[in-house]
Structure formats: structure tokens, C-alpha cells
């Protein structure tokens, strides 16, 4: 089939490359978000999928809003199907109807449980032991379309959202060609979602990534790993970012947020039990394993982490 691929970030690269290199289907165009400023110097940078498309000589379209005239441009490619993978825009009815087989979405969770913009992060934050990739037929609702195939995987201990995203991207890439072939040859089975099981997870904002140590050690660790690389807290007037953590068994009479161990391990008291910080970064410093960070003794037992630096 001729395919228009809609995807923007690194997560979409492997599925796109799989379609290009698989030999079963032909990518006739790639649609992604416009180039954006990146980093402290705000250097205008193309999306990763655009780089891949240009490498292979595939036309690239970048709409500020695809619903404003995008359908007419897409029709020019005479594609059989569109595949979306973390594209970043809601598709209007006229876009959904451009191709014979409609639009197939590569969604990074087991639907219908986590719909929306941040399914990978919230699978970890909510303590899921299993997640996966769902291939679904896109309709006008947010991730509400019929399910075609689901490919599951376990969430590993202390796995960050970035690491899980890389694995889910690989799963999507491994199966995208076979799913499209099943649609083409008529063997695909479409299953309606149970809306009563759905949760919609919104885009994560930095203001919502402060660590609340009032929760249990396990919940705190899941939050830090899921919100990678944005989880933070304050101690002695300085901001610290946490990159990886795990629940720490045991309790103490310390108050919530208090550092209860700094001997080769950085352990912080939570509302119930405690959490061990495995990777940390002081504001203006380098990201370090906790044991290396503690060699400088910038934090000591009895210090406290707080949500606000007030």
C-alpha cells in the first residue's frame, strides 16, 4: 500500500524506518510538526522524522494546523492509508477520510486504559506492571477508535519513561508492516473499545512534576521514573532533579521528605516507607549516580526535601 506517515518525535522514527525499509509498503509522504527552536540557544531544529524522510528522498509536509486545508494537499499523494505515530495534532474528519483505509494509529499503551498525550509516563506513574502498543483505527474522538492489534510488554523495575518509550517504539516498528498487510488483505479484526475503562492523560507540564514525598515510597519512585527527566524537589534552598528511583523498604520516625540515609545510598522518608534516589542532579551541576553525588556530601542525613522553595 502507499502510505502517508504522520509522526514527529524520536518515538516515531523506528516505525517510520520500518515502513521505509520493510519492502511491503511504500511511504509516499511524511507529515510532521514544523521545525521548532531547541535548547538554550533556541536553534531551529527539524523533527527527527523529517530528517529520516529527507535522507530517503521522501516529500515532507509540515502544517501548523493540519485541519486548515491539509486534507486537500494530502489527497495529491493518492495514498491508500495514513499511519499516525505521536504526530501531535488532532485530525479533522476531512483528513480522516482522505485515504481508502483511513488512518491507523500506533498508540503507546494498551487501550483503552491510557488515552491521550502521555500514556507511557502514566503507565509508570500509576504502577502498571504491563503496557504495550495498540494499533487502532483513528476516528474523531481522542484515541477512541476500534482496536486492531495489541502487543504487550512488561514494565521493568526502575525503568524510566524514556527507556520504556524506546522499547515501545521498537515494538511498533516490529509490527507496523504486518498490521498494514492484514488491513490490505482483509484479515484485520476491529474491536470496539470499552469506554468505561478509559483514562485520558494530558500533556505533562513542568509545573506538575514536583515530587510529593507524602505518598508511599513505591508511588514516589514510580512518579520519578515516569516523569523522567522532569521530577524535582528543593533542599536547603537548591533545586534538585531526580532521574531514577526505587522504593526503599523500611520505616523510620523521620518526617516526610527528610533524608534518612546518605551512606552510599540517598534515601528519603515518604508518607509510607521511603524512596531511594538512584540518579540526581543539583541545579547547575551534572547528572550523577547517587553514590557519586554523595561523595561531595552536599546533602546530609536530617536535611529535608520540600515541594516549594519558599
Structure summarized in a few sentences:
Helix content is 24%, strand content 29%. The termini are far apart.
Q: Which consecutive residue ranges, at least 5 long each, have pLDDT under 50? A: none
Structural class of the secondary structure composition?
Answer: alpha/beta
Helix content: 10-25%
Q: Approximately how much beta-strand content do the residues carry?
A: 25-35%
How far the N terminus sits from the C terminus, by CA atoms, comes to 59 Å
Main sheet properties: 7 strands, mixed
Would you count the extended β strands for me? 18
Give Rg in angstroms: 22 Å
What overall geometry do the principal axes of the alpha carbons give? elongated
Q: What is the ordering of alpha helices and beta strands? A: EHEEEHEHEHEEHEEHEHEEEEEEHE
Average pLDDT taken over every residue: 95
Query: Biggest sheet: strands side by side, in what order?
Result: 5-2-1-6-7-9-10
**Structure annotation, total helices:** 8
Amino acid at each position: 500500500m502507499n502510505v502517508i506517515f504522520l509522526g514527529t518525535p524520536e518515538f516515531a522514527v523506528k516505525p517510520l524506518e520500518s515502513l521505509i525499509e520493510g519492502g511491503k509498503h511504500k511511504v509516499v509522504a511524511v507529515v510532521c510538526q514544523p521545525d521548532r527552536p531547541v535548547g538554550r540557544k533556541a536553534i531551529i531544529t527539524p523533527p527527527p522524522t523529517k530528517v529520516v524522510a529527507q535522507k530517503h528522498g521522501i516529500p515532507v509536509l509540515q502544517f501548523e494546523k493540519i485541519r486548515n486545508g491539509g486534507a486537500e494537499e494530502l489527497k495529491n499523494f493518492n495514498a491508500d492509508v495514513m499511519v499516525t505515530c505521536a504526530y501531535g495534532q488532532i485530525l479533522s474528519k476531512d483528513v480522516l477520510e482522505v485515504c481508502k483505509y483511513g488512518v491507523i494509529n500506533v498508540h503507546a499503551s494498551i487501550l483503552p486504559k491510557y488515552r491521550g498525550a502521555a500514556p507511557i509516563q502514566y503507565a509508570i506513574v500509576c504502577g502498571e506492571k504491563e503496557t504495550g502498543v495498540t494499533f487502532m483505527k483513528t476516528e474523531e474522538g481522542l484515541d477512541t477508535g476500534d482496536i486492531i492489534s495489541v502487543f504487550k510488554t512488561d514494565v521493568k523495575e526502575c525503568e524510566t519513561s524514556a527507556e520504556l518509550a524506546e522499547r515501545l517504539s521498537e515494538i511498533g516498528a516490529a509490527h507496523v508492516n504486518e498490521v498494514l498487510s492484514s488491513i490490505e488483505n482483509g484479515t484485520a479484526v476491529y474491536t470496539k473499545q470499552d469506554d468505561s475503562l478509559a483514562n485520558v492523560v494530558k500533556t505533562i507540564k513542568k509545573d506538575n512534576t514536583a515530587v510529593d514525598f507524602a505518598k508511599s515510597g513505591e508511588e514516589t519512585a514510580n512518579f520519578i521514573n515516569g516523569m523522567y527527566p522532569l521530577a524535582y524537589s528543593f533542599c536547603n534552598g537548591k533545586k534538585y532533579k531526580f532521574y531514577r528511583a526505587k522504593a526503599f523498604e523500611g520505616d523510620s520516625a523521620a518526617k516526610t521528605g527528610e533524608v534518612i540515609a546518605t551512606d552510599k545510598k540517598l534515601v528519603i522518608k515518604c508518607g509510607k516507607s521511603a524512596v531511594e534516589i538512584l540518579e540526581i542532579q543539583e541545579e547547575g551541576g551534572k547528572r550523577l549516580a547517587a553514590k557519586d553525588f554523595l561523595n561531595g556530601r552536599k546533602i546530609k542525613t536530617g536535611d529535608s526535601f520540600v515541594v516549594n522553595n519558599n
